Amino acid sequence: MEIPKDVWQAIQDGDWYLGNASELQVLRLHASQLCWFINQPNHNEQARKEALQQLLPNVVNVEIGGHFACDFGINIFCNGPLLVKHNVVILDHNKVNLGSHVVIEEGVVIATVTHPLEEQKRKAGWQQAHAIHIGNHVTLGAHCSVLPGASIPDNTTVPAGTVVTKSMYAL
């Protein structure tokens, strides 16, 4: 199922959209099922590789540890090599552009999506998403968070536990 053009355009433009739209729920469920499969131990490596290709069609040369999760997968881009360690979450409502030779250590969260401060809008399911850019030869230290709209330049090591906001590590 494809995302309707108006919802997709709102997401890519950084406009507010309803995150609980049925089309988005279907895509998230599909990605969740693929994540579940790739996180299972002791299964056919070729089947896991095929599931990874289906989940991350815009990523090449990737090695992913256990307990990986993402919202859609289709918004993650990388020409590799990419090393993703255990317990990594990527909330890819908008694009997550990863350079080559990126290492994502354990427990990292990369989130393009944010929610309104107003309680009623939040309860209604409104969301906003901003693309994230991570350059070449970047290491994201264990348990760091990269927030919507953040950019991390080439040859950067983000210390463990750091919260990277839009204003930090500007290009």
Structure description:
With 171 residues, the protein is an alpha/beta fold. The chain has one domain: UDP N-Acetylglucosamine Acyltransferase, domain 1, CATH 2.160.10.10. It contains 4 helices and 17 strands. The chain has a 5-stranded parallel sheet with strand order 2-5-8-13-16, with no helix packed on it. It has a 5-stranded parallel sheet with strand order 3-6-9-14-17.
**CATH-assigned homologous superfamily:** Hexapeptide repeat proteins
* Mean residue pLDDT: 91
Which series of helices and strands comes N to C? HEHHEEEEEEEEEHEEEEEEE
| Uncertain regions spanning at least 5 consecutive residues | none
Keywords: Transferase
InterPro entries: Hexapep (IPR001451), Hexapeptide_acetyltransf (IPR051159), Mac_dom (IPR024688), Trimer_LpxA-like_sf (IPR011004)
Organism: Marisediminitalea aggregata
GO molecular function, one term: acetyltransferase activity
